[in-house]
User: Fold ABC transporter ATP-binding protein from Actinocatenispora thailandica.
Amino acid sequence: MVMVDAPVLRMSGVDLVRNGNLLLDSVSLTVREGEHWALLGANGAGKSTMLGLLGAQVHPTRGSVEVLGRLLGRVDLRWLRTRLGHVDPRHPLGAPLRLFEVVLTGLTNTIELVPRWRPSDDESARARRLVDDLGLGHRIDARWQTLSQGERGRALIARALVAEPKLLLLDEPATGLDLAAREQLLESLDLLRHNDPRLATVLVTHHLEELPASTTHAALLRAGRLVAAGPVAESLTTEHISACFDHPVRIDRVDGRWTARAGRRAAPAAC
Assistant:
């Protein structure tokens, strides 16, 4: 039986080895209800690997991972995945579904609509409400192939939330978006988090500018190890970000949003 105050996610001393390579090294992390985590790191740092563990896609080599109170290795992963929301901008849809139909596939955890399956009236209403909340009501009947990249990103968030998960995982959701589309996406995430205060989220990115203002915590990965993890005031600092990306970086926060720019390296001593 899962305790009410149990963490949504808990990783304890996790190593992950693949083809003889240590991809994650002694990683421990706890995510609780209502927390909104950023998972940051350079390319190859282990972000996608870690998200695969959190999304019940793979098992750890050593250590333990609990998702929604269930220990990986002692739970049916297919069952567990149906209770998670996962946003991947590389959604592999080939069929010419309409936006609303794509959102409904989140209820069956499938890429395309299941033959002869029909949503309940409550499920349809919830899907329409999410589409409206994400500013896509005017595009609800548009074919997937006609949507912009930004519209697809917001539709995938609606798809991930329509089954009312306790945990939402976002894998670089702002990838390929222009400035306006990115800002619409981040504003939508802020609104959804406000509307569902119990929802926990983990967002993967390597750009601080892609973090919503509602981000509460951050975990910084470098070469498979955590550089820092905790509330954003403690983790998203110039010192920690510079160490994470192995480059001098200066961090600023204005109106709840973060920016980063290169710091100055020490000048060589004059002869």
Summary: The chain has a mean pLDDT of 90. The CA atoms of residues 23 and 229 lie 18 Å apart. The domain at 7-83+166-262 is CATH 3.40.50.300 (Rossmann fold).
